[in-house]
Design goal:
Ribosomal Protein L22, Chain A, 2 domains, 5 helices, 8 strands, three-stranded antiparallel β-sheet, alpha+beta
Length: 217
């Protein structure tokens, strides 16, 4: 049980509800508690691209892909495989924009029709301060943290946002971005990359930090 008294499954449902309240229209999101046998959700073509990863990573990937398939089924796209391509990026159907993420406990997925969104990227993080050594790499003086600094979560939010932005833009230009190649403004809920992309952000802080970066079509 969590500190709030909720089970992991109940917390995953709470995260789904919290994020869904702030999603832009036309985008879907779901969170799943990672289970001890979630590697069994990997389809054969997915397993081939993930077979060299540790079993814990396969479970996380299986949970994220199971979550994504739930959303795809709601769009009439059942049984779709989501293999891993270059730089570990998930390979989506051409008419879908989507993204997967996980931490050690939860897996998340967000999908939308390509006709509505040009880019979609998601990341999930625990709602706890970011280690100082990671913050030194991820956060720059150009970033604008906004109000969450009082809770000690500003650096974690900026880190999460940059991860989401990278996942959103990489499928379009296949350029590997560093953290200082992305500038995040949490006050305006926007981000920009040195490669010329401007994105909007959806930010959820509790019960888990989730950031979705997107660009409308």
């Amino acid at each position: 049980m969590s500190e709030s008294g909720q089970s992991g499954g109940e917390m995953a449902a709470a995260i789904t509800r919290a994020v869904s309240l702030v999603l832009p229209g036309g985008m879907d999101f779901v969170c799943r508690l990672i289970g001890s046998h979630d590697d069994e959700f990997l389809l054969e073509t997915e397993r081939l691209t993930l077979s060299r990863r540790p079993i814990a990573r396969q479970r996380e990937s299986g949970a994220a892909r199971y979550a994504a398939r739930l959303l795809l089924e709601q769009k009439g796209l059942g049984g779709i495989a989501i293999p891993t391509g270059l730089q570990g990026a998930p390979q989506w159907p051409v008419n879908i924009r989507g993204s997967l993420a996980h931490d050690d406990v939860y897996a998340v997925a967000s999908v939308a029709w390509a006709r509505d969104f040009e880019m979609v990227g998601v990341d999930v993080e625990p709602a706890s301060p970011l280690p100082a050594e990671v913050a030194m790499l991820a956060v720059t003086q150009d970033d604008r943290p906004g109000d969450p600094r009082a809770d000690g979560l500003a650096d974690r939010l900026l880190f999460c946002a940059k991860e989401a932005v990278y996942k959103a833009v990489y499928p379009s230009d296949r350029i590997v971005l560093n953290y200082d190649d992305i500038v995040v403004d949490l006050k305006q809920a926007t981000a920009a990359t040195v490669t010329g992309w401007d994105l909007q952000l959806v930010v959820c802080v509790r019960p888990r930090i989730v950031v979705i970066a997107f660009r409308r079509a």
